[in-house]
Amino acid sequence: MGALRGVGIGAGVAQGPVIRMAEPLPAPENVKSVLGAEAERARIRDAIAAVAAELTARAESAGGAAQEVLEAQAMIAEDPTLQDEVDARIDDGATAEWAVHDAFAGFKATLEAVGGYLGERAADLDDIAQRVLARLRGVAAPGVPDPGHPFVLVARDLAPADTALLKLDQVLALITSDGGPTSHTAILAREKGIVAVVGVVQATGLSDGETVIVDAAAGAVTTMPSPDELARATERASARQSAEALPATPGALADGTPIALLANLGKPADAADAVSRGAEGVGLFRTEFLFLSAAQAPTVAQQRESYRELLAAFEGKKVVVRLLDAGADKPLAFLNDAHEENPALGLRGLRALRASEDILREQLTALAEADAETSADLWVMAPMVTTVEETAYFTTLAREYGLKTAGVMVEVPASALLADRVLAHADFASIGTNDLTQYTMAADRMLGSVAGFQDPWHPAVLRLVGEVGAAGARAGKPVGICGEAAADPLLAVVLVGLGATSLSMAPAALSDVRLALSERTLEEARRLAEIALTADDAAGARAAVAAALV
């Protein structure tokens, strides 16, 4: 018996036999083509077109966050700059296989050097290159295995195209040796409700067929489990299923303190799932889906229709809409096409909107018109607000358009430390824990090399959350959490203890968080928060809080 440690996603537990994901296809040899440049170029065009079409089809089938990721991959596959690099190698006499392998590798290195959103997309190039190579060779692309029975999937990491279409009736749990709590694999696993533990460095030593217990709540993988351990895991899984089957109730602590449980959504079509899982409203509606796939900003009419559809799904309930959060990991040529050495620290969020105020005003116009046509309680917030002056600018502008509730995203330490002054102007604050962790820990959340620093359990991050929570309490204004941290059931209790009045997350996480809150009083939540704050690091905070509950 042994336990391998990683970062758990959610609170589920599962057991079953390990099946390892196949290793990538071997690199082709650098030999001269015998077919000629035109024939090789035609082979590549056909292969890339087929891969792009497959990724697009998977995107439409997957929906949710996976759709955006897969659509981005399809666009990368057909990127003209990348195609020029491939053609240059063909012109030098290379085979299609070598041209793809070498061009994609060079393009990946370039994107990694840029960092930010493009740095993250670099990881997708390996998956795309493998799919194109498989097409050229006439073999199946490496992907999720299908042994014909339920299994625990073990992989270094999963490409978005694979994670998007995992067969939930076959994949009992997921273990990866790479990645962190904010990696694509973790986010998509959370969205689909898959039991997962990521960043398990020793997972590469697991063998096909061996039985393991995957405990997301504990962030552990138990090898060679005893019969008693297997029985306890089965009981826990059954209890969790029973709890999920119960009618959803409003979020509340054991002493009756209400904590609204809201959903993070990426497009109006996601609303039905959130409602069916008992979401009390929307804590974060990302409006980027309207802009990212467009060559120019959508019209007011186009935006209004999407916002109206969303608001109509939540009549009488709170819906928090985040204005366009472009820049950094979501660049838009029509908003800011200037090269930036470090786009995560550049013209992004409200900064970018303010520099193109016509886009900001059009978005506010569309929201105001949609609000007038529906009965939801619309709240609007600006992304990446850093200063008190920015807060005053945005809230004044929002009210100019008749939007009655205007707030800000707290994602950088500056606005957290001045939360009392920020909330003097804003009606509410919503803490984006992904970015707040990134900026507090000086660790780009798109870089796997520093994924270990990307943990919202770190006491430095929690202390900033506490600053905002305390400021909100003094001002009598709501403080929500809308980052991935809210989906961690144990951390959710700590966040409430730090002053959060609402939690917003992927809909699949709602039942686990609802149960975790119902077992603790506000006094207990505050005590657990104090315990977490006394730790020296993220692992210590998590372990100390878990130990206090034993």
Describe the structure.
With 550 residues, this protein is of the alpha/beta class. It folds into 3 domains: 2-22 and 144-244, Glucose Oxidase, domain 1 (3-Layer(bba) Sandwich), CATH 3.50.30; 37-137, Orthogonal Bundle (Enzyme I, Chain A, domain 2), CATH 1.10.274.10; 246-548, Phosphoenolpyruvate-binding domains (TIM Barrel, Alpha-Beta Barrel), CATH 3.20.20.60. Helices cover 47% and strands 14% of the residues. The protein has helices at residues 37-62, 64-77, 80-91, 96-114, 116-137, 160-164, 184-192, 227-245, 271-276, 300-312, 350-355, 357-373, 388-400, 413-417, 419-422, 433-441, 459-475, 489-497, 510-518, 522-533, 538-548, and strands at 2-5, 7-9, 13-20, 151-155, 171-176, 196-198, 211-215, 220-223, 260-265, 281-286, 318-322, 377-382, 406-410, 429-431, 479-481, 502-505. The protein has an 8-stranded mixed β-sheet. Helix 10 (300-312) packs across helix 12 (357-373) and helix 20 packs antiparallel against helix 21. It is globular. The model has no long low-confidence stretch (mean pLDDT 89).
- Widest sheet, order of strands: 1-8-7-3-4-5-6-2
Number of strands: 16
How far is it from the N-terminal to the C-terminal residue, by CA?
21 Å
Total domain modules: 3
Instruction: Please outline the major beta sheet.
Output: 8 strands, mixed
Helix content: 40-55%
Average residue-wise pLDDT: 89
| Number of helices in the DSSP assignment | 21
Structural class: alpha/beta
The CATH architecture category of the largest domain equals Alpha-Beta Barrel
CATH topology of the largest domain: TIM Barrel
CATH hierarchy class name of the largest domain? Alpha Beta
> Which overall shape is indicated by the principal axes computed on the Cα atoms?
globular
CATH superfamily of the largest domain: Phosphoenolpyruvate-binding domains
- Determine the strand fraction and express it as a percent band: 5-15%
The parts where pLDDT drops under 50 for at least 5 residues are none
